[in-house]
């Protein structure tokens, strides 16, 4: 038999309503395989009235279908009885995202704050495999972990009014990609020419999805300028 991991909830499961059509179950395992397994497990029970799911770090939000949830107690009971097969892990899609660190407008400050050479910062960042925990804030905006603890930083004290599209930022254990020009307070380490959200693509507007993995590949300014992203 495969080793199985029982639900991580030590006492009563924490949940709350988010408006009329959603509930949030909090403090589930931070293991991405466990999260995806729980989501897929709940999909096996259409009678519960769950129309869609959203993973946000350690939280799982359930959205009801047009007829509403069948029974909150039954949903919570299913969650509590979920068993995760430790040996069965999802084959997580891997995306290679080009990054030009020459556009790292905060690299000098990051180096100064962390007392780490810029080339070492780039090496650590580019050798990290990131998990996408959620897509949010604006469409296509991925929140990725887990950044090496050597690069942990707080948000900027004064957020920028405009951060260029494609900018890649870090705070605490997370890394993100700005799909549009927008305000933001993350420490910008580089920029990608890739469009992570394309509203003209009706079948798959988001390039990345929760559960995917990402590696960053360093490119030069010339390669950045010559890059085309269909």
The helix/strand order is EEEHEEHEEHHEEEEEEEEH
Estimate the global geometry from the Cα principal axes.
elongated
Low-confidence stretches: none
Distance between the termini: 47 Å
Record field, number of beta strands: 15
Approximate helicity band = 10-25%
Report on the biggest sheet: 7 strands, mixed
How many helices? 5
**Spatial arrangement of strands, main beta sheet:** 7-15-8-9-12-11-14
Rg over CA atoms, rounded to whole Å, is 20 Å
**Mean pLDDT rating:** 85
Category from helices, strands and their pairing: alpha+beta
Would you give an account of this structure?
The protein has 230 residues and is α+β, with helices and mostly antiparallel strands. Helix content is 19%, strand content 30%. The protein is built from 5 helices and 15 strands. It has helices at residues 32-42, 72-80, 107-114, 118-126, 221-226; strands at residues 4-6, 15-17, 22-25, 50-56, 59-64, 83-85, 94-99, 130-135, 142-145, 160-163, 167-171, 174-177, 182-184, 187-191, 213-218. A 7-stranded mixed sheet has the order 7-15-8-9-12-11-14. A 4-stranded antiparallel sheet has the order 2-3-5-4, covered by helices on one side. It is elongated and about 55 Å long.
